[in-house]
Amino acid sequence: MEAIIIVIFSFILLSCILAGYSILWALLFGYLMFFGYALRQGHTPVQVLTMSGRGIRTIKNILFIFILIGMITAVWRACGTIPFIIYHMSGLLIPSVFILIVFLLCCFVSLLTGTSFGTAATIGIICMSIAKANGIDPTFTGGAILSGIYFGDRCSPMSTSALLISELTQTDIYCNIKNMFKSALLPFSVTCLLYALLGFSGTGNTGTADLYALFP
Predict the structure, then answer these.
(1) With a threshold of 0.85, does the pTM exceed it?
(2) Both 76 and 129 in a single domain?
(3) Range of the domain at 146
């Protein structure tokens, strides 16, 4: 029975994503399904609500961070921060090391904010816009963005996934991050080397597009 409910919930969640509806509807429906299943298992409504409240209290800090991340992303879009950064970064573009710069920049922003999705929605869009305007391969740029945002998020003390693991396992988040840094040092170094080689091998144009003309 548990497997059937999980499959149904997964199907509804996937349907909402593909149809473009908010996943909040899928989450609400899933909660009602699990609520009904708990009642069928012999729990009272008060007990189910108590368990729900206990689970929310466990991840309350993570929920607050999600809210703040959403606010930052919305403010960046609304006040024109993204076009502003694109406008001023276009003159600093160095095509030979652009892919490496994208990777390091996404690592830094993701490490600072603790969100891979938020980094992709802000600095990731900026980097891809500059790459397209300057004829740099979007495949390599997209790969650098993805690897950068997930690497930074993995090692960030602000990361919601790291906070969730720390809360659930009752371990010290800084000790966890310290251990992750040790295991990430070698792949980070190899990745930087590969992106540097890709840049010097000529993956993009040497000229810089007139991005200033796009902003009146």
Answers:
(1) no
(2) yes
(3) 61-214
